[in-house]
Amino acid sequence: MKTIPSIETQQRMHAFFMKTSAPRIYKRQLEEERKRKEIEAEEQLKKDKK
After folding, report:
1. So which domain of life are we looking at (predicted)?
2. For residue 13, what are the contacts with CB-CB under 8 A and spacing of at least 6?
3. How far apart are the C-alpha atoms of 18 and 24, rounded to whole Å?
4. Read out DSSP for 4-42?
5. Cα dihedral 7, 5, 24, 43 sign
6. Could you point out which of 9, 13, 14, 36 has its C-alpha 20 to 30 Å from the C-alpha of 20?
7. Using 50, 70 and 90 to split pLDDT, how confident is the model at 48?
8. Cα separation of 21 and 8, whole Å?
């Protein structure tokens, strides 16, 4: 059975994650959201032209 890391260890791991991985993940999510909105806007323009 695995043991759960101490609260201090969990906090250090969380702080490290927030400093390193989280900004990259957030940036990727923003980029995907922006691309999706651009595609939706283009599709809306095509519909409006018809």
Report:
1. Bacteria
2. 5
3. 10
4. PPPHHHHHHHHHHHHHHHHHHHHHHHHHHHHHHHHHHHH
5. negative
6. 36
7. confident
8. 19
Tokens representing residue 44 in the block = 């809306």
- Burial of 2-17, coded b for 16+ CB within 10 Å and e otherwise, reads eeeeeeeeeeeeeeee
Percentage of the chain modeled with pLDDT above 70: 96
Name residue, tokens 């490290």. Answer: 16
Write out the two tokens for 13.
């791991």
What would the two tokens of residue 4 be?
């759960």
Compute the radius of gyration of the chain from its Cα atoms.
20
For the segment 8-33, the average pLDDT, to the nearest whole number, is: 93
Q: What is the pLDDT of residue 50?
A: 65
